[in-house]
Design goal:
- This protein has about 80 residues and is an alpha+beta fold.
- It has one domain.
- The protein is about 20% helix and about 30% strand.
- It contains 1 helix and 5 strands; from the N terminus they run E-E-E-E-E-H.
- Strands 4-3-2-1-5 form a 5-stranded antiparallel β-sheet, with helices on one face.
- Strand 3 and strand 4 form a beta hairpin.
- The longest helix has 16 residues.
Length: about 80
Amino acid sequence: MSVERGSEERDQVPYRPALGELVGDADRRCLGVVKGELCGAWSLRSVTGGVEWVADAAHIRRASRAEHLIAGIALVNARSRGEIL
């Protein structure tokens, strides 16, 4: 007797974000903007700048609407403080 797996368990393809897209890094529990991809790992940078980090493709997820608002507020606050142009 064979047991068929559910559709959600079948060969799931990791999420592939576009360059410049805001994503969540589940491993670091933070948001980042996609800067590039190399060998299945994604290069991310904070919305307000700083040092890039590398995130495994398995830990990347789409940012929610609330996270987009949070990132936008962080960007506006950094601009008001003169940290970025």
